[in-house]
Amino acid sequence: MVAEEDSAELRSPGGRAMLERITQLINSVVGAEEPGAALTPEEVLALIDLGGSQGGPSGRHWVLDPIDGTRGFVGMRQYSVCLGMLQEGEVSGCRPSVALLSAVILGLFFGLERYTELSEDAVEQVDRFYMYFIHVQIMVFVGFGFLMTFMRRYSHSAVALNYLASALVMLEAVLVIGATQQGFWNQKRSKIQIDIPLLIDASFCAASGMIAFGAIIGKSTPTQTLWLLVFQIQVWGRGEVKKTITKCEARCKLDAS
Predict the structure, then answer these.
(1) Are 161 and 212 in contact (CB under 8 A)?
(2) What CATH homologous superfamily does 96-256 map to?
(3) Residues of the chain with CATH 1.10.3430.10
(4) Subcellular localization, per the record (predicted)?
(5) Residues contributing to the annotated binding site for Mg(2+)
(6) SS (H, E, C) the chain
(7) Mean pLDDT score of the chain, rounded to an integer?
(8) Which residues of the chain have pLDDT under 50?
């Protein structure tokens, strides 16, 4: 563990009062979770010194910044606890496969998509669907995103990963759902037409992914989480086909009657 501080100042005669205060604060939290598990000042000093590693280019090291945003912390505003892992001198987290996946999805999106041209009923479509689109977007990025702030161990990192995963899922969902719809309707188009109903479907796809994300957070790495969501979209695409077929069958029965 590589941390910014050690216990040298707390071990000095002038730091005794501060050490007692720190020990009291730690025990107020530890005691609430595990009654009878209070720490002594010496144990607190030993725990602080666990972050005394000098690091290096080999092996595995955790790098900790307990208060990133000191001014915000002092002013009782926003701050974060930053924790990263170095393996053989390289930052560990989202693997290069995720960056490659994002590049492929972005490339396909800009290569195969285009916005639908304005039609005579464009204003009517916006009036009809736009509010639905905004509401689903708020649910995905604000609702699910900031719901994670209530998770004590994952709050800030969970929000950031939620934003990244939602954006990535929506891009792929537009590709999958758009291609599925065009294939079912046998539309002879070289590019997928982006309209508000398609974006709403993609947003619901992202919402389903965020529900799964909440179930596995803390049990999978960010890379595993993103790959899981990518594969989940394929299942959603098949569901979109079934939904379209069901609607068509119901419409045919209604017309026949």
Answers:
(1) no
(2) Ammonium transporter AmtB like domains (1.10.3430.10)
(3) 96-256
(4) Membrane
(5) 33, 65, 67-68
(6) CEECCCCHHHHCHHHHHHHHHHHHHHHHHHHHHCCCCCCCHHHHHHHHHHHECCCCCCCEEEEEEEEECHHHHHCCCCCEEEEEEEECCEEECCCHHHHHHHHHHHHHHHHHEEECCCCCCHHHHHHHHHHHHHHHHHHHHHHHHHHHHHCCCCHHHHHHHHHHHHHHHHHHHHHHHHHHHHHHCCCCCCCEEECHHHHHHHHHHHHHHHHHHHHHECCECHHHHHHHHHHHHHHHHHHHHHHHHHHHHHHHHHHHC
(7) 76
(8) none
Specify the pLDDT at position 222. Answer: 76
Which token pair is 79? 């701050």
Domain with CATH 3.30.540.10 in the chain: 2-92
Phi and psi dihedrals of 52, rounded to 5?
-90, 10
Whether the pTM exceeds 0.90: the reply is no
Write out the binding residues. 33, 65, 67-68
